Every structure is written in C-alpha cells, then in structure tokens.
Amino acid sequence: PKSLEIAEALEYDFRNFRAARRSRIGCLMRGLQFDDWVRAFLAEHPTGTIVELGVGLNTRFERLDNGQAHWVDVD
C-alpha cells in the first residue's frame, strides 16, 4: 500500500516501464530476497540496526519494521 501511495503522489508517467517486464520481475525478485535477509536478521537480532544504502523509494521499513529495530535509510 505504501508503494502505491508513493507512486501515485509522483508526477511521473510510469507507462514506459510496461514493456520492461523482465526488469520489473528482476526488481521484485531482488526486493523479495532482501526482505528475506532482513526478516532473518531481525529474527536473530530484534533490536539490531538495519542500514540501507541507496534506498530510493523502497518501503522495506514500512513492511518489515518490528517496532524494536533501528533503521537508517540513506539515498
């Protein structure tokens, strides 16, 4: 939901990405892998620190925050 909210708030024509199906799938798969790694880390270190570099418009914090970890997002 947060990703959709961000995309709708941008004044950008995303239709150019419709033809790049493999690129979209790659982005999704990469995001799922990073989410899995963060979930595993938080399972072992619930009060740990997650540092994301080049975060862009990702919504990992909104999806995975456990309310105890420390997040640092740098773009």
What is the topology, as strand order, of the major beta sheet? 1-2
Sheet-strand content, in percent, reads 5-15%
Strand and helix order: HHEHE
Largest sheet: 2 strands, parallel
| Global mean pLDDT | 91
Describe the structure.
It is a single chain. By secondary structure, the protein is of the alpha+beta class. It has helices at residues 2-9, 21-44, 60-64, and strands at 49-53, 70-74. Helix content is 49%, strand content 13%. The chain has a two-stranded parallel ribbon with strand order 1-2. β1 (49-53), α3 (60-64) and β2 form a beta-alpha-beta unit. The two termini are 21 Å apart.
Q: Keyphrases for this structure?
A:
single chain; 75 residues; alpha+beta; two-stranded parallel ribbon; 2 strands
